[in-house]
Amino acid sequence: MIRRTHHARDRGIPDATVARLPLYLRALNALAERGTLTVSSEELAAAAGVNSAKVRKDLSHLGSYGTRGVGYDVQYLIYQISRELGLTQDWAVAIVGVGNLGRALANYGGFVSRGFRIAALFDADPAVVGERIAGLVVEHVDALESVIKDRGISIVVIATPASAAQDVCDRVIAAGVTSILNFAPVVLAVPPEVNVRKVDLSIELQILAFHEQRKANGGPIMADQWPDEVGHVRERSMGAGS
Ligand SMILES: NC(=O)c1ccc[n+]([C@@H]2O[C@H](COP(=O)([O-])OP(=O)(O)OC[C@H]3O[C@@H](n4cnc5c(N)ncnc54)[C@H](O)[C@@H]3O)[C@@H](O)[C@H]2O)c1
């Protein structure tokens, strides 16, 4: 059965494949930097931390099958994946909330080389507005809508406190943005055409804590005690899962 809702685009690339393409790209870029010209699916699998059958299947969605006995052409695969991910063009990104996290992101040099140009920084605090960070002057969040339109910003990173995140989210959507990367620990309500990716390191730590605890207790992990995808341990026997 074809599950259309799980497909990222009309061409039918599954979301799970899309989520692995950046891993392949990172591995391929590292190979290219070392001067590697071709790569087998096994080598790419090991470098990306994915199994090789999955690599072959994922790349077949891009129309890339490799050459038997030779493998994949590294540069061509980089081009194909970049094109599929929309990285052959530059994207203008804004960061809202220029505290500890926002300024660390603004100062990170790695986005530009991957096609993401930080084009605006916003904050609500008058002590922060006007500050120069990574070559940009922090602007007041009141200017959000006009700056988004003027600079063609297509992706917004939210790094405000949780209490401000939904309001910021509503405003950037009203200004026409449909892609949001949310670091605030809150689930944002958005219309269906808006894509939100969330990053929460404390959830990752909680999942690691779960596994540490299991290892310390020695016993096998019971099927009904796996954490769900947001890290909450389900206790099916208590009827708490959904
Ligand atoms: N996802 C993660 O892994 C992760 C890690 C660390 C922090 N966080 C979260 O990221 C957010 C930022 O953390 P931080 O340590 O940088 O906090 P911070 O307090 O240092 O910075 C928040 C900034 O947002 C600004 N702000 C507040 N309201 C605003 C508004 N309406 N519009 C624009 N700017 C506004 C503040 O003036 C401040 O400069 C928090 O929600 C925090 O919980 C997430």
TrEMBL record:
This protein's record includes keyword Transcription regulation: yes
Stretches assigned to the CoA-binding domain: 86-187
A GO CC term assigned to this protein in UniProt: cytoplasm
Principal place of residence: cytoplasm
Gene Ontology biological-process annotations: negative regulation of DNA-templated transcription; response to redox state
Pfam families in UniProt: CoA_binding, Put_DNA-bind_N
GO terms of molecular function: DNA binding; DNA-binding transcription factor activity
Subcellular location: Cytoplasm
InterPro entries xref list: CoA-bd, NAD(P)-bd_dom_sf, Rex_actinobacterial-type, Rex_DNA-bd_C_dom, Tscrpt_rep_Rex, WH-like_DNA-bd_sf, WH_DNA-bd_sf
Binding site for NAD(+): 97-102
Superkingdom, taxonomy of origin: Bacteria
Stored Gene3D superfamilies: NAD(P)-binding Rossmann-like Domain, Winged helix-like DNA-binding domain superfamily/Winged helix DNA-binding domain
Residue ranges for the DNA-binding region feature of this UniProt entry: 23-62
Key words of the record: Cytoplasm, DNA-binding, NAD, Repressor, Transcription, Transcription regulation
Keyword Endoplasmic reticulum: no
Subunit structure: Homodimer.
Chain's role: Modulates transcription in response to changes in cellular NADH/NAD(+) redox state.
Similarity section: Belongs to the transcriptional regulatory Rex family.
The protein, known as: Redox-sensing transcriptional repressor Rex
Gene designation per UniProt: rex
